[in-house]
Every structure is written in C-alpha cells, then in structure tokens.
Amino acid sequence: MGYINELGEKAKKSSQTLLRLGTAQKNHLLKQVANHLVAQTSYILTENLLDLENAAANGITSIMVDRLRLDANRIEAMAEGLRQVADLTDPIGEVVRGYTNLDGLKIVQKRVPLGVVGMIFESRPNVTVDAFSLAFKTSNSIILRGGRDAINSNKALVNIIRQTLESEGIDPNVVQLVEDTSHAVAEEMMQAVDYIDVLIPRGGAGLINRVKETAKVPVIETGVGNVHIYVDESADLEMATKIVINAKTQRPSVCNAAESLVVHEAVASSFLPKLEKEIAKVHEMEFRADEKAAAIFEHSKPACEEDFATEFLDYIMSVKVVSSCQEAIDWINTYTSHHSESIITQNLKQAEAFQDQVDAAAVYVNASTRFTDGFVFGLGAEIGISTQKMHARGPMGLEALTSTKFYINGEGQIRE
Predict the structure, then answer these.
(1) Is residue 261 within 8 Å of 244, Cβ to Cβ?
(2) Secondary structure (3-state) at 311
(3) With contact defined as beta carbons under 8 Å apart, do 136 and 401 qualify?
(4) Burial of 356 from C-beta contacts in 10 A (0-12 / 13-18 / 19+)
(5) Distance between CA 270 and CA 121 in Å, rounded?
(6) What average pLDDT is seen over the chain?
(7) Which of 203, 9, 205, 234 is CA-nearest to residue 121?
C-alpha cells in the first residue's frame, strides 16, 4: 500500500469515530489545542526559524518570507482562531428542511460531514491550524500537505494538535500531515478517490491549476486573486486613494490584495498623480500602465496583455483607463479570477450595476478588498476562499465543509 493510501485508510477510519463526538467535546478539544499552542510557542518558533533560514538560503523574496514567518502574536492569533471556531454554532445535524410527502413519509434533510478532506497548500503555517479547526468542528478528518518551505513549522503544529487529541482520548489520525513534500506524493493524493472525499488546493495559480488538471478527487478551487479596484468618475478621490493604498500595500502577498486598478478617464488625470505620490510614501510601487495611464504617471512601465491577468503578489499593479462604468465591468469580467472586486463611487446606480454584473465571490462598494476573509465575515477561521460557483463560494467556513443527507421515516409504506 502506498504512502498516501496508508494515510487515507487511517483518515477514513478516524472520520467514523468523529461521528460519535458531541459538540461540547469538539469545542473543548479546540480550546485545549489553543492553550497548548500558546504554551509551546518557543518550540513552534524554534521550528519556524529553521524554515526561515532555509528560505533565506533559497533566495525566497521578503514578501513570501512574510507568509512563512511566525511570531508570538501570530501564534496567539492562531489560538484565538481556534477559540472562535469553538464558539461558533456546530452545523452538523442542523435540519435544512423537513416535511411529510404525499406517501406519508417523514423526510428530513440534515447537514453531515464530507468525510475526509484533503488540503494542498503553500507557505503559510497558520493554514494548518485553521484547516484543522474547521474540519474537526464539522466532524471531518483532514490530510494536510503543506509546501516544503514550511515543513518544520507544519510538523510542530500538527504534533501539538495530535498530542492534544491523544490526551483527550480522540483518534489522532483525524489530522495527518504529508511529510513527503515531493510532487509525486502530491499527485498520489490527487488520485486518492477511495479515501479523500474532497481536495482543496490553496496557493498560487500554478498549484491550483496543477491540482485542477491532475486530480481525480473532487476539487474546490480557491485562492487565486487577480483583484481589481475601479475608481468611477463620481468617486471621492481621497477615499479612493486611501482604499487603493490599503488594498495594495497592507499585505501584498495575500489573495485579497489588489493587483489591478481601473480608472474612469474623467478622473484619471487628477487621481493617478495623487495615488502615485501618496503610495510612494508607503512603499515603492511599479505601475504597469496602458497608454492613457502611462501618459499621466510620472513613472510607469507599459503593460502587456499578461500583466492585466496576473496575480503579482508583489508591489506591482496593472492600470487601465476606461471611458465608462460598463467598460470597467466588461474589462474586469474579462480578467477577473472571480475572487474580490471593488468600485469606488458616489453613484448608487453605478454601484448597483457593478455589484450585480461583476462575476466575483465578493463585490465591494467603497471599501478595501482586504476584508475578504472568514474571520471578518463572521465565519471564524476559513479553509480557503472559493472562486467557484458550486457548493461553496467566497470565504469557506464551517458550512462549506458539510454535505447533506436525507433521513426518511415511514410506517410500512411501499411504492405501488
């Protein structure tokens, strides 16, 4: 039996034991894991330092290192995330609907676990804890395959979780880490249809596309964020400047950071110089501009077609000037990755048209796209942000990790 099949068999068995746990037991376990993470901060940081040293040796950019780095505050944030998930309503067993049909059968549709969730992700160790918390709260087992750049951090975090599970008399195999980070083993995981019920890739476009193209296991697509902000002709330019700077520079390595700027031609000549000046006070920025925008910027590079479709994850931004809100909507729908998009406007009609017509999981009016997040949306932790339209869309919280089952009770009915 192959490595992934061994993990899968353990996960399948352990998922059955989770069905016997009540909500109170699950909540207690999550709070215990939170306490143990904080108590073992030194151990986690020692292991994380090994990953940071390897990253430096491998020439990983400072922006990507930021995704990898842990500190006491980030560990406390992971613990707080666990506590928040513990405080959320458990969706398992929730009655979606109930009725009696014409044959007198009493039919109830309830929320149930998916079973075994597989997750392939990059860089960010906090994903390990977030994913576990959501899977466990919804009575799913989970197999985690992080990137090699975070392997020591992920081992430490999973060790603490498994030790806590064991101490509470719960099968530790409800969470397992794939310690072999080779592409061959990742592909094994993508083919493990006998053991994994759903696979969630979380990372850059390369990872997600590889999983979509290779996997036989059902996939929930997440994460790639070619995020646009459109500054309309009626926009408050002070507000627009503040929002664009926040969306682009606050944390450029995340999927809800803005990558593309679209500006109405009526305000371009006043807005773009203002933005260029103000954003430079925060961080040096490279604008890749179309011809109209390039003529206005003091410093920019000409944009090519690929730039308008790229998730840069860096201090780089594509810029397009348009002549109408409808042109902006059409442009965004051409290049969107269906993640998050925003319009800055004082025109209610334009705002409504933008929100109705733009094809994305989260569509904002007069706000930064950085808010697309499970915590912010009140979902507790998130396992990813789905850019699909089936089953789950947007930040994926507890409900996204459930399916439904029909419970039918009769009194001897037979079908004639």
Answers:
(1) yes
(2) coil
(3) no
(4) exposed
(5) 42
(6) 94
(7) 203
For tokens 């980030």, name the residue: 74
- Say what percent of the chain tops pLDDT 70: 99
Of 52, 100, 169, 17, the residue nearest 408 (C-alpha)? 100
23-39 and 41-57 helices, crossing angle to 10°: 70
Band of pLDDT at residue 204, cut at 50, 70 and 90: confident
Q: Residue 352 half-sphere exposure, CB side, CA atoms within 13 Å? A: 3
Are the C-beta atoms of residues 229 and 354 closer than 8 Å to each other? no
Of the candidates 287, 285, 282, 272, the residue with the CA atom closest to the CA atom of residue 237? 272
CA proximity to 252, closest of 205, 307, 316: 316
CA–centroid distance for 207 within its chain: 14
pLDDT in tens, 1-51: 689 999 999 999 999 999 999 999 999 999 999 999 999 999 999 999 999
Angstrom CA distances, 359 to 78, 319, 324, 348, stand at: 32, 20, 18, 19
Report the helix count and the strand count for the chain, using DSSP H and E.
Answer: 14, 16
> Six-digit token pair at 400?
């996204």
Instruction: Provide mean pLDDT across the span 78-107.
Output: 96
Q: Match 């969730």 to its residue by tokens.
A: 117
- Residues 356, 358: Cα–Cα separation, whole Å: 6
| Mean pLDDT comparison of 357-361, 376-380, 388-392, highest-scoring range | 357-361
Helix (H, G, I), strand (E, B) or coil at 380: coil
Packed helices 126-137 and 23-39: angle between N→C axes, nearest 10 degrees = 160
- Asked if residue 231 lies in contact with residue 253, where contact means CB atoms within 8 angstroms, the answer is no
- Token reading at 28: 């207690």
Tell me the two tokens of residue 217: 């296991």
Residue with tokens 């995330």: 81
Taking the C-alpha atoms of residue 88 and residue 63, their distance in angstroms, rounded to an integer, is 33
